[in-house]
Design brief:
- The protein has helices at about 20-25, 40-45, 50-60, 80-90, 180-189; strands at about 5-10, 65-70, 95-100, 120-125, 130-135, 140-145, 150, 165, 170-175.
- The chain has about 190 residues and is α/β, with parallel strands linked by helices.
- The radius of gyration is 17 Å and the shape is globular.
- Helix content is about 25%, strand content about 25%.
- It has five helices and nine strands; from the N terminus they run E-H-H-H-E-H-E-E-E-E-E-E-E-H.
- The chain has one domain.
- The protein starts with a strand and ends with a helix.
- Strands 4, 5, 6, 7 and 8 form a five-stranded antiparallel β-sheet that branches. The chain has a four-stranded parallel β-sheet with strand order 1-2-3-9, sandwiched between helices.
- Strand 2, helix 4 and strand 3 (about 95-100) form a beta-alpha-beta unit.
Amino acid sequence: MPKKVFFCIGTHDMSDLRINVVRSHKLTHDNHGGYFSPFIWESAAKAGDDGIKKMIDAQIQDSSASVVLIGTNTYDQRWVKYEIFRSMRKGNKLLGIHINGIEGRDGRGKSLGPNPFSYLGFMYSADGTEIIPHEYRDEIWVPFSDMPPYKIKEVPEQHRNKIITLTKIAKTYNWVVDKGALNFPQWIS
């Protein structure tokens, strides 16, 4: 049975046709979870940050894999960061796909954007019973304010009090180079 996919898409990338190449893959053709049109964003935003979080949480709750479509500035998008950490907390399979190599309207690709997993990480608490989400800002790791620490089963002492970047737990692919049209089903399995 195919997984239900949540797509994490930066607001700056929503108008980019490149996201549709991945979103319209036959595996997810009828499942466009995680993609919210500007109208839906505006509607949720009227309820403030809590409205946006509720919208995102509802879609992630109904998914089993979260795919970050990595464009030029995806790594620095507040709500993409929230989607990533929320997906991680739920236990979704988490991966990234660089989309800038896909030809755009002009028939050309663009330079790849930075990997958001390099700028996000987590730390196990001193007692080993919580995960504390972090982001890399201004050359230091700081707690991610939109996602509070959450409880987990206790981890061994040697894993506590150090940042683990999400590159350690989430793979990243290039849609063009890694033949996404062919390999996407294996990536999310």
